[in-house]
Specification:
Strand content: 15-25%
Number of helices: 15
CATH class of the largest domain: Alpha Beta
Structural class: alpha/beta
Length: 488
């Protein structure tokens, strides 16, 4: 991983060195997207001191700002750093080791400066959070939400939440929880100031329980259409087995059509009233509607870790790798499912709901960082203007974390978490991808776009260099895998 950032002072203004902290860093001649849905403005100069945006002023070509290092943002757009509300720091896949560095650098290379780690290995995530906070490693800032499990009674649930708080958790992730246990645990979490993320699933609870307990966010979409089904249970076939993931995900693709629109609107209104946000993780189920696309994403060629590649192979023993007999009919249902799901998201925001952005990568053919950027594209497909998409990814994410007073905006006094993009992502979100895009200029095909710099707490990282490091990690891991196979 990156060594601790060195603090240096330069006599002359110069392009920064990746991973190096400067007393005073300037970004010159930038078009700025603040992150709250307002239009881009500029050109402007941004001055960063002590990890904070100290000053934003109109750009004056004849009066360069005093700084120890300068990023030239001419022709570039500056956005707030992206907030990934649903991340997983995986250090193994399919029983094969996978470096945390691989995950962390992919996130930074894709402009992600903050991650809500929902359900990683708790002790390890706390360790990485501390290293990240001290800038001892190159990583986004981390908010750690351990999985809630193991409580059989309400008293045990409350004790488990107190344990999490004492150990340093920032919040709690719920999955597959009985109603009485959920009620006790979320009440204790609220009393202790811990936020909550709810993966409801197909279980006793629905969105109504999260609403009643005033949970922080609902992940994915489980529980929302379930709460709007008149019969209170989906029309499962007699042989359905929820523990069989092929059954589970096949019939999940037929859920939204069973929701009653009038009841659904009541659920959405109640979520708004209770302040329950929605983190839809739109990209994570996309393979269900187009398996061939998911299996052949171009960045797999040189940046898919062999551990992740093995995990993605169809195998019911690996969560989300259920594509053993996936049919055209399944994809057709899922395409319709997406349309209804996206319409519900647009309606939720129209009614005043808070929508964030998360990826849930490391599963179902989604790579870390790339899954997040694809999620943003799908927000636009749902019907949101790109300015709203950026707001979902930045200011809204900060609100979900309770950090809207310091994160998620390009604003004086806010943390200097920024993304410098080669081009205007508002006209094409694909410009955010580290692989950039091909365009035709003057009759010639050229590559353009990509993130130039990801800045976290005022510390600049060369995104292309980070992505190069990722490719090197993958090449080394593939070589080691070939050596192991040859020795067997």
């Amino acid at each position: 991983m990156l060594a601790a950032a060195a603090v240096v002072t330069l006599a002359a203004q110069t392009t920064p060195v990746s991973g190096t902290r400067y007393p005073r860093l300037a970004i010159r001649n930038a078009m700025i997207v603040e992150g709250v849905g307002t239009p881009a403005s500029g050109p402007r100069d941004i001055i960063i001191e002590g990890g904070v945006i100290e000053q934003i002023t109109p750009h004056n070509p004849s009066r360069p700002p005093r700084a120890d290092a300068v990023i030239d943002a001419g022709g570039r757009y500056v956005l707030p750093g992206f907030i990934n509300l649903h991340g997983h720091i995986h250090e193994e896949r399919a029983g094969i080791p996978q470096e945390a560095e691989y995950v962390l650098k992919l996130w930074l290379a894709c402009g992600i400066t903050t991650v809500r780690d929902v359900g990683g290995t708790f002790k390890r995530s706390l360790e990485l959070r501390g290293l990240s906070a001290r800038h001892a490693i190159g990583a986004p800032r981390l908010f750690v939400y351990p999985f809630f499990s193991g409580a059989r009674t309400p008293d045990e649930a409350r004790a488990r939440i107190r344990e999490f708080k004492q150990q340093g958790a920032d919040g709690v992730k719920f999955l597959g929880t009985y109603r009485d246990i959920l009620d006790a645990a979320t009440a204790e979490a609220r009393a202790l100031g811990l936020r909550t993320a709810h993966h409801i699933g197909v279980e006793e609870t629905t969105a109504w329980d999260v609403i009643r307990n005033r949970g922080t966010s609902i992940e994915h979409w489980y529980g929302i259409p379930d709460a709007a089904i008149a019969a209170r249970v989906q029309n499962f076939p007699a042989g359905y087995n929820y523990s069989n993931e092929l059954d589970r995900f096949r019939y999940a693709g037929r859920l939204w059509r069973e929701a009653n629109p009038e009841r659904l609107h009541k659920v959405l209104d109640a979520m708004v009233e209770a302040g329950v946000a929605w983190d839809p993780t739109l990209a994570i189920y996309e393979a269900s509607r187009d398996l061939l696309r998911a299996q052949n994403q171009p960045w797999f060629a040189d940046s898919l870790h062999p551990a992740l590649a093995e995990f993605f192979k169809p195998n019911l023993a690996s969560h989300g790798s259920f594509f053993l007999n996936w049919t055209t009919t399944d994809e057709a249902y899922w395409r319709h499912n997406y349309r209804l799901w996206m319409d519900a998201l647009v309606e939720f925001e129209r009614r005043g709901g808070l929508i964030g952005a998360g990826e849930d990568a490391g599963y179902i053919y989604q790579m870390y960082g790339f899954g997040y950027l694809r999620t943003l594209e799908l927000h636009e497909e749902a019907g949101f203007h790109p300015l709203r998409v950026i707001a979902h990814a930045t200011h809204n994410g900060a609100r979900v974390l309770g950090e809207e007073g310091r994160l998620g905006r390009v604003r004086e006094g806010w943390a200097a978490d920024l993304v410098v993009v080669n081009g205007n992502p508002l006209e094409n979100l694909k410009l955010l991808y580290p692989t950039s895009v091909e365009v035709v200029r003057d009759g010639k095909t050229v590559r353009t776009g990509g993130i130039a710099w990801t800045i976290r707490d005022g510390l600049p990282y060369d995104a292309a260099r980070l992505f190069g490091d990722v490719k090197d990690l993958v090449a080394s891991a593939r070589k080691n895998a070939r050596t192991r196979r040859a020795a067997q």
